[in-house]
Amino acid sequence: MRPRVSVQDSALRNGNFSLRIDPVRSEDAGLYEAQVAYNTEVQSCQVELGVITVTLSPPSPVVENEPLLLSCNSSHRASLVETRWFHNGRLVPTSGTFCSLHGALSILRPATSDAGSWCCQLRYSDNEIISATYNLQILGFDGPTNPVVYAAPGSAAD
Questions:
Q1: Distances (CA, A) of 85 to 82, 90, 137
Q2: What's the distance, CA 7 to chain centroid?
Q3: What is the domain class of 52-139 according to CATH?
Q4: First CA to last CA distance, the chain
Q5: CA atoms of 74 and 115, how far apart (whole Å)
Q6: What is the pLDDT of residue 142?
């Protein structure tokens, strides 16, 4: 896993044996064990790393009015009970232009107003709740509602 992993040598003297992984990849999910031997004493601990990903299909950039699919997947082993989606912090009703199914959200006709932070929240049968965020960018026309713009000769027009 080198060079993505590190241990802070300066923290070892204080009993901090933390392992840092940056960046985390999907294949890093699993059980990690640390063993520390000091004189005749051996201590160990286990930590499970779970990974959650949000993917976009088709990949960025998304063009206004072209359907897209945001998928949320986790390495958690329990069965998925519920998926909730939030756009810029607000719960998204899954009806009309937004359709949610098995951890995925389909946006049939995305608009520039749909750009921003999308958060999926997964709830599992063991009551574990896991969430991840995706920053969605949408290419589109964000101009005047009236497509006619008047400008005087010699002036600038936007």
A1: 10, 8, 17
A2: 26
A3: mainly beta
A4: 51
A5: 23
A6: 65
Q: Tokens 């206004």 sit at which residue?
A: 64
Domain map of the chain by residue range? Answer: 11-49, 52-139
For the chain, which ranges sit under pLDDT 70?
A: 142-145
Sheet strand arrangement including 98-101: 52-57, 68-74, 104-107, 98-101
Residues 78/79/82/88 CA torsion (nearest 10 deg): 50
pLDDT of residue 78: 94
Sheet holding 116-124, edge to edge: 90-91, 80-87, 116-124, 129-136
pLDDT at 143: 64
Pairwise CA distance, residues 116 & 70, whole Å: 13
Tell me which residue of 105, 94, 29 sits closest to 67, measured CA to CA. 105
Alpha carbon separation from 57 to 52, 79, 136, 144, 152 (Å, rounded): 17, 24, 11, 29, 44
- Specify the amino acid at residue 65: N
For the four alpha carbons of 36, 38, 39 and 44, in that order, the dihedral sign comes to negative
